[in-house]
Specification:
The protein is of the alpha+beta class. It folds into seven domains: about 120 residues, Rossmann fold (3-Layer(aba) Sandwich), CATH 3.40.50; about 180 residues, Topoisomerase I, domain 2; about 120 residues, Topoisomerase I, domain 3, CATH 2.70.20; about 120 residues, Topoisomerase I, domain 4 (Orthogonal Bundle); about 60 residues, no CATH class; about 60 residues, no CATH class; about 45 residues, no CATH class. It is about 35% helix and about 25% strand. It is built from 20 helices and 30 strands. The strands form eight sheets. The chain has a six-stranded antiparallel barrel with strand order 9-10-13-12-11-14. The protein has a four-stranded parallel β-sheet with strand order 2-1-7-8, with helices on both faces. Strands 19-20-21-22 form a four-stranded antiparallel β-sheet. A hairpin with a 5-residue loop joins strand 4 and strand 5. The chain is globular and about 105 Å long. The C terminus is likely disordered.
């Protein structure tokens, strides 16, 4: 039995570390956290300094038992979880759950999984940093208080199944506010005038420094230069430089991996985790841009040997984030000699990106020569500008930054006359604010100081799985662009079509996101306040530094937060639904509202407090929102259900739209009509859908007994049912040959159906 037990978080990490330690060491994994707050209940003692009631997770009891056994037979236990607050908390929970003795327990940390790093860590053990543990406890307790007390408020006032969080709610607010900016944006147009001049058979494109506001002004201006001459007024040549970017932090890696590789934030972190655990890169959760002395020397050696000494320029980047708390380097390769590494193609692409960025950060700046030509117009104050750029020395761009194509201007001198070939005034529109991509949201959260590197991926994942945000493409809409072209003294107006508003893989808020955000802004302003959320992160930093007690910080927060929860009980569901009066139905004289209901946005005709007549409800028309739907569109929706006639047997046929889309109803049978419009579907089409449904139902019913028991074909195989209880039929039995007695025996032996609880909803 080994004398030393090393405990890490993951099996992959354990396997890599095990290669570097001798037979006196046994490396085991805790498989992440072994203790946490129970999923059900608050489990925080509000009367006793917010003491958390941790428990060993049910799926970790076997792991804890094995670790206890291994610890008892070892003379020393080395806790080697990651060196950040979460890793420190994992180490602390291990000491508590395994009842480790301090004199036989050592904490070791390293930023990369290499032999030298592991050996250095073993030679320099330390004690658990309780300040880091407390900072993590403060984050966990605060987030539990917010989630436990605020989420039920959303269930009552908005919709069941929602969740709220200190970071996720702010992230949703950012996306909602950006979408509203886009919605309210009114683009203004102007005309950009481009010219193509000729000099000794060389083309020289240039742009006018004046942009007419209207097509009339643009046309009039072109008419004034029909007889104009064009001369080179000035030539300015300046040297320029392009400098490399700093090595990757967590957020900059997420952003660049999205931009260059199309990886989502979660995908990037998963791949980086695997590269780290395999010993190929340093720790991937960091907000530091610094490199170790070893890394600086290794980069210098590689660059000098492969590109030459003139390509090397050592620089130690300073971390921009003043509150950066993680004691790590930037993300870099552990071996600079390996330009490619990873166990699959996705890992290799991410590794190469990290390798290129790190090497480039220690390379010389690219040297450029930029030339600007000013072209005068006779009897006009405006000038055309032509710009060229020549790459004199590629520097870091040899490794990172893509290939720079030179824009070379023809050889030309001041006062030389240029011949005009064509001139075009093109209508351009102002651009609305851009929607957030996952990477863009990370950048904005980082700018505001909200969250930390480890929180971005789970936050973005949560707001999508909870239905607040959808990541999707937008096709855009066509619009006409006006042009005015001058060729051979002839001015010709024309137009062309372009697609406006197209977006790819961007984050869109759902209707529930807008309702929830407005509710939180109105009744829980501190939770979604950007400055407050950033200040909380600063509080965690002070706790980690030992400058603030975590329990006092939590008490101050809770004393302000809890009264807001109590006050929210006075808010009615009707107020939260944000009903918008669209107009009045001309036939019934009843008001029509667009509002948010239990299952999402909907239309309501009539008043909810009318005791004589309950209101009618209808879904929103496709392509509209609660803010954009108008009265005419709403009236069409209330024309449903639409009667299509009857079958030969006298059963009524109707068409309608429900929660799951358009459908027809024949008697008591509902049939989905998928992409067909219930306003236009014909009786013959409806009967075809109904006939298909009957065939499917017949194929599904395998056997029907006189007692009412049935054997049906289901998506997971045949089963027997009495309408309430289902029981699978064993694969070795022919469902069509089972007797009624055997079918009843299968039902009697079926496990009891789990009881589902539904939360009551207040109005």
């Amino acid at each position: 039995m080994a004398k030393n037990l090393v405990i890490v978080e993951s099996p992959a990490k354990a396997k890599t570390i095990g290669k570097f330690l001798g037979k006196d060491f046994e490396v085991k994994s805790s498989f992440g956290h072994i203790r946490d707050l129970p999923k059900k209940g608050l489990n925080i003692d509000l009367e006793n300094n917010f003491a958390p009631a941790y428990e060993i997770s049910s799926d970790k009891k076997k792991v804890v038992s094995e670790l206890k056994k291994a610890a008892l037979s070892s003379s020393e236990v080395w806790l080697a979880s990651d060196e950040d607050r979460e890793g420190e908390a994992i180490a602390w929970h291990l000491t508590q759950a395994l009842k480790l003795k301090p004199e036989h327990t050592k904490r070791i940390v390293f930023h990369e999984i290499t032999r030298s790093a592991i050996e250095t860590a073993i030679a320099n053990p330390r004690q658990i940093d309780i300040n880091l543990v407390n900072a993590q406890q403060a984050r966990r307790v605060l987030d539990r208080l917010v989630g436990y007390e605020l989420s039920p408020v959303l269930w009552k006032k908005v919709r069941g199944g929602l969740s709220a969080g200190r970071v996720q709610s702010v992230a949703v607010r950012l996306i909602v506010e950006r979408e509203r900016e886009i919605r309210d944006f009114q683009p203004e147009s102007c005309f950009k005038i481009n010219a193509l001049f000729i000099k000794d058979a060389h083309e020289l494109p240039a742009e006018l420094d004046f942009k007419p506001a209207t097509v009339e002004i643009a046309t009039s201006w072109l008419q004034t230069i029909l007889s104009a001459t064009f001369k080179v007024k000035d030539i300015i040549t300046k040297p320029g430089v392009r400098t490399p970017s700093a090595p990757f932090t967590t957020s900059s890696l997420q952003q660049e991996a999205y931009r260059r590789l199309g990886y989502s934030v979660r995908q990037t972190m998963t791949l980086a985790q695997r590269l780290y655990e395999a010993g190929q890169i340093t720790y991937m959760r960091t907000d530091s841009t610094t490199l170790s002395e070893f890394a600086l020397q290794a980069a210098q050696k590689y660059i000098t040997a492969n590109f030459g000494a003139n390509y090397h320029h050592q620089i130690q980047y300073k971390t921009k984030n003043a509150s950066a708390q993680e004691a790590h380097e930037a993300i870099r390769p552990t071996n600079f000699e390996l330009s490619s590494s990873g166990s699959d193609d996705q890992q290799r692409k991410l590794y190469q990106l990290i390798w290129q960025r790190t090497i480039a950060s220690q390379m010389s700046a690219a040297q450029l020569e930029r030339t600007t030509l000013s072209i005068s117009i006779s009897d006009h104050p405006e000038i055309f500008l032509a710009r060229g750029e020549v790459l004199k020395f590629d520097g870091f761009m040899k490794v990172y930054g893509g290939t720079k194509e030179d824009t070379i201007l023809p050889s030309i001198g001041v006062n030389e006359v240029l011949r005009l070939q064509t001139m075009t005034a093109i209508e351009t529109f102002g651009r609305s604010p851009a929607r957030y991509s996952e990477a863009g949201l990370v950048r904005r959260l980082e700018e505001l100081g909200i969250g930390r590197p480890s929180t971005y991926a789970p936050t973005i994942s949560t707001i999508q799985t909870r239905g607040y945000v959808e990541k999707k493409d937008l096709e855009g809409t066509a619009r006409q662009i006006r042009l005015v072209t001058l060729v051979s003294d002839q001015i010709t107006p024309s137009s062309r079509e372009e697609i406006s508003g197209a977006d790819h893989s961007k984050l869109f808020p759902t209707a529930i996101a807008e309702i929830t955000t407005d509710f939180l802004v109105n009744y829980f302003p501190t939770i979604v306040d950007y400055d407050f959320t950033a200040r909380v992160e600063e509080d965690f930093d002070r706790i980690a530094e030992g400058n603030e007690q975590w329990t006092k910080m939590i008490k101050k927060f809770y004393d302000d937060f809890h009264p807001l929860v109590e006050q929210s009980n006075e808010v009615s569901r009707q107020m939260v639904s944000q009903a918008r009066l669209i107009g009045t139905d001309p036939n019934t004289k009843l008001p029509i509202y667009a509002r948010f209901g239990r299952y999402g946005p909907m239309l309501q005709r009539g008043e909810t407090d009318d005791e004589t007549k309950k209101p009618d409800f209808a879904p929103l028309p496709s392509g509209t929102t609660m803010d954009t739907v108008n009265l005419d569109q709403a009236l069409v929706m209330f024309s449903l259900p639409r009667n299509l006639g009857t079958t030969d047997d006298g059963e009524e046929i109707s068409a309608n739209i429900g929660r799951f889309g358009p459908y027809i109803k024949v008697g008591k049978t509902f049939v989905s009509i998928k992409d067909h419009d219930p306003h236009t579907v014909t009786k013959s089409e409806a009967l075809k859908f109904y006939a298909t449904k009957l065939v499917e139902a017949k194929e599904k019913n395998l056997v029907e007994f006189s007692s009412g028991l049935k054997i049906l074909r289901g998506p997971y195989g045949p089963y027997v049912t009495d309408g309430k209880t289902n029981a699978r039929i064993p694969k070795d039995q022919d469902p069509k040959k089972i007797s009624e007695a055997a079918a009843k025996s299968l039902l009697d032996a079926a496990p009891a159906k789990k009881r589902s609880f539904r939360r009551s909803r207040s109005s």
